[in-house]
Amino acid sequence: LAELPAECGSLQSEEEEEEAAAEEPGPSAAAAAEQRREERLRRFRELHMKRYEACKLNSQEVAEEDKRLKLPPNWEAKKARLEWELQVQEKKKECAARGEDYERVKLLEISAEDAERWERKKKKKNPDLGFSDYAAAQLRQYQRLTRQIKPDLEQYERLKEQYGEALYPTSDSLLHGTHVPSKDGVDRMVADLEKQIEKREKYSRRRPYNDDADIDYINERNAKFNQKAERFYGKYTAEIKQNLERGTAV
């Protein structure tokens, strides 16, 4: 009987505390507001750090660009060349340490595609150093014309099916009078000949000396100058020149 009033008093105090918490703003709302504030401050600090990093990177890029602009224009090529030479020296040292030939090792590392590409580059270089003799000039002309020939593979296959082994002549084959050129082939030949004639007409050659022409110059350079002057101003000075020759000039 003595313990019952104590239990009732404890229950009453708990109810009073709950009612007081409902009437006054509790710590949960304050904690939520504080959490939102901390979140906003954290995002602000992140944005501030991103802005700082962007400014720092921009400054570094400006400094690097200024360095690149001050370098010579072919610095990148020189740098790549120097790096390649250093790599070659390192490989030579490694091959020498292993007792191997560097040139042989280098050739083993080159693929067939790279070798063909380098050969094509070598062939593109023009070995013609100028006129040596008429035989060499004729050979160059023949090579130039043959490079322009584009074979018709479809016609070749048709002829191969039609004639078989007879398409490939031997020492016993009679070729004279057996080949009849097509109309397209004749047209191509005529067009190429006309193109050659047109190109020859543009060639310039040294004009022969005319013994009957008046000598009004002191050297070849002065003769060229007089020809140009006559070409542009001859129609204006023709009468004055005639008067000077007749001695009737005023």
How is the secondary structure organized here?
Blueprint lengths: L3 H20 L3 H44 L4 H24 L3 H8 L2 H13 L9 H14 L5 H11 L19 H19 L18 H27 L4
Keywords for this entry:
250 residues, mainly alpha, 9 helices, extended, nucleus, Pre-mRNA-splicing factor SYF2, spliceosome
In short:
The protein is mainly alpha-helical. It is built from 9 helices and no strands.
Count up the helices.
Answer: 9
What level of helicity do the residues show?
Answer: over 70%
Report Rg.
48 Å
How many DSSP E strands? 0
- Mean pLDDT, to the nearest integer, reads 79
Order of helical and strand elements: HHHHHHHHH
How far apart are the termini? 163 Å
Low-confidence stretches: 1-12, 20-24
Class derived from helix and strand content: mainly alpha
